[in-house]
């Protein structure tokens, strides 16, 4: 699966969990750039990603993410 | 040593001159700061210094051992040992009597006949702050966020650094430690800005917090004999006393550190303009709430992520209850923390519904109403926080609702005017890091304002009647 496909699917997951309208992520996007992406729903987003791809993250992995690019790399490494 | 004491007014200029006169020798500067910090801390009781030094040395070597081992089992073991030792020390000094006496009370209530004589333990000042600082560093090294420090003097100095030692901000090693490992440059604008933030902190502490303290103490001690409106105003006054006391301390700490070329974490960001409890906690004691978020809330919610939103509700409740307990060994703090956990959990579960409701109202009306509700909830929980016991809080609440609300309030109007003035200044300056951040304005204007504040502080009768910073007890 390529990066563009993962980002497209992440947009849908973010829109569903955050429920703040359309989300357009890029590799450089950070939590500050997306309205409603806060610590309270970050874990829910991570769980939705785990369910979608049938993968598991560790706490250290999710705490070391700096932007969507890191998240995409993490997902690609596991699927 | 109190920031607002005469000793500090002699201590700080000496340290400042000595520190900057060694600007070419970073290591010597660090040693000056290390010695100054231990003198500052030992001013209360020299025995405290021993515990601080032992905790710092233990933290340094444990993080190093964790970093140097590749075996995950060994890393887990060392991390667990660190938690046991640091939390164990904290529990012994702070919570031992509380836990045992609570257990004995519970046992007696079910018919067991147990006796407990509390042991005499001195509570070392700042223990909760430096324990969290060191534990946060160890966790970060354990999680591989960054490598352990090799610079022993820089490390123990950054833990003991006197502006932040006693009541925070609870620093993160990756923010403060590199500042000790690199050269600091003398900067006149920073010096001026630091001085202004210190001045603002002294004003909030000496003029407002200490001015409110006497009336608040009277109202909380004599609520039986007071009318409802006086009690209500007393609770509001305590809310502002706590804010001015604690945020005043933080301003002094940040300003003092900036004058020596360091930047500490922002600890307050105009919390009284928040429209939700979650927002309030992003603006109140920020260094503690972000610590709780990173090391308690996120791990717990991650572990319970398959519970959906209830997992986050559970994580909020547990984290905030523990943050309440961090403040002290009393059921009032635990209930206070749990109430905030419940409020945040409620906000999370009703986020979508509240958003829909908000669209039916005028945005300004909705914002103001939300702000008022948040303020009332905060004041209500501050009553529990300040009370000696849950029984005391309950008694005050009963009297608050049954007492006369139409009677004349028995409080000083001057202090209410100071509070109004403070809020006005904060609203005007709400996009600045602190309300007296005016160093970029006209020379005459800024120094006239500073001169006026200095005159107000020195003419305040509170100067001779100061109280300790409230957060020192935590």
Automatic annotation (TrEMBL), chain A:
Q: Where is the Carrier domain?
A: 1-79
Q: Which Pfam families does this one have?
A: PP-binding
Which PROSITE patterns does this UniProt record tie to the protein?
A: CARRIER
InterPro entries from the xrefs? ACP-like_sf (IPR036736), PP-bd_ACP (IPR009081)
Q: Per its record, how is this protein called by name?
A: Acyl carrier protein
Which organism's genome codes for this protein? Pedobacter montanisoli
Q: What is the lineage of its organism?
A: Bacteria, Pseudomonadati, Bacteroidota, Sphingobacteriia, Sphingobacteriales
Automatic annotation (TrEMBL), chain B:
Q: Please identify the protein, giving its name as recorded.
A: MBOAT family protein
Cross-referenced PANTHER family: ACYLTRANSFERASE, PROTEIN-CYSTEINE N-PALMITOYLTRANSFERASE RASP
One Pfam match, by short name?
MBOAT
This protein's species is Pedobacter montanisoli
Keywords tagged on the record: Acyltransferase, Cell membrane, Membrane, Transferase, Transmembrane, Transmembrane helix
Q: Which residues are listed as membrane-spanning?
A: 6-23, 50-66, 78-96, 116-140, 152-170, 226-244, 310-327, 333-349, 361-385, 405-425, 437-458
Q: In which compartments does the protein localize?
A: Cell membrane
Belongs to which family? Belongs to the membrane-bound acyltransferase family.
Its record classes its membrane topology as: Multi-pass membrane protein
Where is it predominantly found?
Answer: membrane
- Cited InterPro entries: Ac/AlaTfrase_AlgI/DltB, AlgI, MB_O-acyltransferase, MBOAT_fam
């Amino acid at each position: 699966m390529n990066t563009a496909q993962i980002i497209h699917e992440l947009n849908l997951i973010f829109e569903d969990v955050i429920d703040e309208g359309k989300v357009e992520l890029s590799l450089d996007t950070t939590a500050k750039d997306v309205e409603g992406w806060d610590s309270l729903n970050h874990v829910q987003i991570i769980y939705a990603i785990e369910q979608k791809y049938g993968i598991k993250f560790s706490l250290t992995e999710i705490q070391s993410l700096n932007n969507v690019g890191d998240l995409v790399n993490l997902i690609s490494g596991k699927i | 040593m109190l920031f607002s004491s005469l000793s500090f007014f002699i201590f700080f200029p000496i340290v400042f001159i000595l520190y900057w006169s060694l600007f070419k020798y970073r290591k010597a500067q660090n040693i000056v700061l290390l010695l100054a910090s231990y003198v500052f801390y030992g001013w209360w009781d020299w025995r405290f210094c021993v515990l601080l030094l032992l905790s710092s040395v233990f933290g340094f070597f444990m993080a190093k051992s964790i970093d140097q081992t590749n075996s995950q089992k060994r890393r887990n073991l060392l991390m667990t040992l660190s938690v046991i030792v640091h939390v164990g020390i904290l529990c012994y000094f702070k919570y031992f009597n509380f836990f045992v006496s609570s257990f004995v009370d519970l046992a007696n209530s079910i018919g067991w006949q147990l006796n407990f004589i509390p042991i005499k333990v001195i509570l070392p000042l700042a223990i909760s702050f430096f324990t969290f600082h060191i534990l946060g560093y160890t966790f970060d090294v354990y999680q591989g966020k960054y490598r352990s420090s090799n610079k022993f003097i820089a490390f123990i100095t950054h833990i003991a650094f006197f502006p932040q030692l006693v009541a925070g901000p609870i620093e993160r090693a990756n923010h403060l430690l590199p500042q000790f490992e690199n050269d600091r440059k003398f900067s006149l604008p920073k010096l001026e800005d630091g001085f202004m933030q210190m001045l603002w902190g002294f004003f909030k502490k000496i003029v407002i917090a200490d001015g409110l303290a006497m009336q608040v103490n009277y109202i909380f001690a004599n609520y039986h004999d007071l009318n409802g409106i006086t009690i209500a105003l007393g609770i509001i006054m305590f809310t502002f006393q706590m804010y001015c006391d604690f945020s005043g301390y933080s301003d002094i700490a940040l300003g003092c550190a900036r004058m020596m070329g360091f930047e500490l974490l922002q600890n307050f960001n105009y919390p009284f303009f928040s429209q939700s409890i979650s927002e309030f906690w992003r603006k109140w004691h920020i260094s503690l709430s972000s610590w709780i978020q990173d090391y308690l809330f996120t791990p717990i919610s991650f572990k319970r992520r398959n519970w959906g939103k209830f997992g986050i509700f559970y994580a909020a409740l547990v984290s905030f209850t523990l943050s309440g307990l961090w403040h002290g060994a009393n059921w009032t703090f635990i209930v206070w923390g749990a109430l905030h956990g419940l409020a945040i959990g409620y906000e999370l579960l009703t986020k979508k519904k509240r958003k829909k409701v908000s669209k039916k109202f005028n945005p300004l009306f909705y914002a103001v109403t939300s702000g008022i509700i948040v303020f009332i909830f905060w004041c209500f929980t501050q009553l529990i926080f300040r009370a000696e016991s849950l029984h005391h809080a309950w008694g005050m609440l009963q009297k608050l609702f049954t007492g006369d609300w139409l009677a004349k309030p028995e409080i000083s109007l001057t202090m209410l005017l100071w509070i109004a003035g403070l809020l006005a200044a904060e609203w005007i300056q709400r996009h600045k890091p602190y309300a007296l951040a005016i160093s970029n304005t006209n020379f005459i204007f800024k120094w006239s304002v500073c001169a006026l504040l200095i005159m107000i502080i020195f003419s305040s009768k509170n100067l001779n009647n100061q109280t300790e910073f409230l957060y020192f007890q935590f």
